[in-house]
Description:
Elements: H1 2-5, H2 16-36, E1 44-45, H3 50-58, H4 63-80, E2 86-90, H5 94-101, E3 108-115, E4 118-123, H6 125-137, E5 142-145, H7 160-166, E6 179-180, H8 195-203, E7 206-207
Parallel strand pairs: 1-6, 3-7
Antiparallel strand pairs: 2-4, 2-5, 3-4
Amino acid sequence: xxxxxxxxxxxxxxxxxxxxxxxxxxxxxxxxxxxxxxxxxxxxxxxxxxxxxxxxxxxxxxxxxxxxxxxxxxxxxxxxxxxxxxxxxxxxxxxxxxxxxxxxxxxxxxxxxxxxxxxxxxxxxxxxxxxxxxxxxxxxxxxxxxxxxxxxxxxxxxxxxxxxxxxxxxxxxxxxxxxxxxxxxxxxxxxxxxxxxxxxxxxxxxxxx
Length: 209
């Protein structure tokens, strides 16, 4: 609660290993509040790290396992990825973005498809700035997101083995509520939500739309 209230001396929400666990806790608490009011989801879906909370709400992960994924994965991002990457929202369709970023030869990735003309690109900071200039010159809105790491890009591959080891103890189970994956873009058998899935969730494009 000190983090959420901004209490003096509390860790900053600017840190990925602080903000992601805080967001997860808020999502879990809101779901419990809605259930207490008699509102039960017919299905769940989550965006990027939001899938971890969705899995817990669906009953596919215990709270302990979901907390483990959230905390240890965000700590790995803080140790290895923070300070080396970035992300940017681009007002273009996904196919147009893929065509644009091909010129950067793997330094940029399509991080998320949030809508028909609402995408996110992640990767090397210099390449992002170059793409932003290109977009602005073509009259396309492109806004740098205030993070210093590149989720859903090739950067994540550097922590693959560590994540698979850290998250190996989790035990996914059959959900009580249908789980719609934004990794695969379709309903998913939640017994597949193992360590490899949560690595893939961080590495691959978020297919929300």
